[in-house]
């Protein structure tokens, strides 16, 4: 087992990994930028190394500085968290070259799943349901037009180096195709240095339902059921829940089996997520595979009662999985609390938290790194806390979320708490009747006068 793990991340996920390491008797090394000197993950780790100034490019993304920190503290493994270098194939490779265990996917796996057309071709070969579409990358516009006619409009153009909605265009008729083709390729070239595009039949008003999997070093995988992540704004998840209100036992078995098939076909090692698009007829299609722990992992932990960071560390240390699959015994909801102003287009609201009261009580979990007096730096993403409520039924979990949000006091910066409170009163949300289009129609009511 590892003696010392360096956490190459910050904020709540750094704290999350440190907590599990402590419970496992593993020493921890925090890395921090000058902007995070007063951050909790620095205080809770056994050792801490400053790796550079505030800009991520000069600190949390600076591979030589992170490797140096691991060398001087003699860390035998690195946990990358999510974001930053967690899906950087080069970083995974450099860790291996330095004989430091990267607690995540191999660089080959990250490359394979990072190229979306290759990932899809791999899944198709594995027998995982995929959206009908082009055979790999489109050669040129004539090929694009021929493929669109063969598939039939509406279609979705996607950048192979994209993901998370970047470099994607929905096209509803032939007269719009060439302009969409040109603009998507330019965006992909500029954004990723790779203008490779592929095409799929457009799935209208899909749900985003993902399956958590864990694969061990023997190539065996298990699943830990689903998370419904359909409530998104500009491809940013706002709230997630498990079980999905759209799920049936039959669909869960089918999707879980498909996710395991995907993981075992590629001999996936570690915690991963297989994302699916689900249409209104409950047909499901492979969308993307994420080779990292996800922000929303806590709701799975709460309903199957498994520590996913611990699972990651055990697998990375060569411990085989039990082979069992895990099914929800409770209902859990996560609201991502961001330092953003929902009444001003969710614009970031960094600054000092002058007063903080956090919710608690039975079934309430708060994963956060903030404290009263903490200054939220402007350099990083705006998520400051994940509020998770868990109960026997969906309605009770919602009631608990409403009560916890009402209790949650953050003074000094704006937060998305008021948005989430209104979400929990929305009739379509309460009915579990929502797709990825839900936020397009959501209207935030004006804030009440103080
Ligand atoms: C789609 C789709 C409809 N049809 N593919 C968005 C980001 C990336 N994960 C893939 N996405 C989509 N792919 C086909 N063939 C609709 C989306 C989509 C979406 C998917 C999941 C969650 C939110 C979304 C918001 C807009 C579009």
Explain what this protein looks like in three dimensions.
This protein has 450 residues and is α+β, with helices and mostly antiparallel strands. It folds into 3 domains: 4-103, Rossmann fold; 132-201, Dna Ligase, domain 1, CATH 3.30.1490; 207-440, ATP-grasp fold, B domain (D-amino Acid Aminotransferase, Chain A, domain 1, 2-Layer Sandwich). The protein contains 15 helices and 22 strands. The chain has helices at 11-23, 40-44, 63-73, 89-97, 107-114, 116-126, 141-151, 177-192, 249-265, 297-304, 308-316, 394-407, 417-423, 427-430, 438-441; strands at residues 4-7, 27-33, 47-52, 77-79, 101-102, 155-163, 166-171, 197-201, 207-215, 221-233, 236-242, 270-278, 284-290, 331-338, 340-341, 347-348, 351-352, 355-357, 364-368, 375-376, 383-391, 409-411. The strands form 6 sheets. It has an 8-stranded antiparallel β-sheet with strand order 13-12-9-10-11-14-21-19, with helices on both faces. Strands 3-2-1-4-5 form a 5-stranded parallel β-sheet. Strands 7-6-8 form a 3-stranded antiparallel β-sheet. It starts with a strand and ends in a 9-residue tail after the last helix. The mean pLDDT is 97. The structure holds ligand MV4.
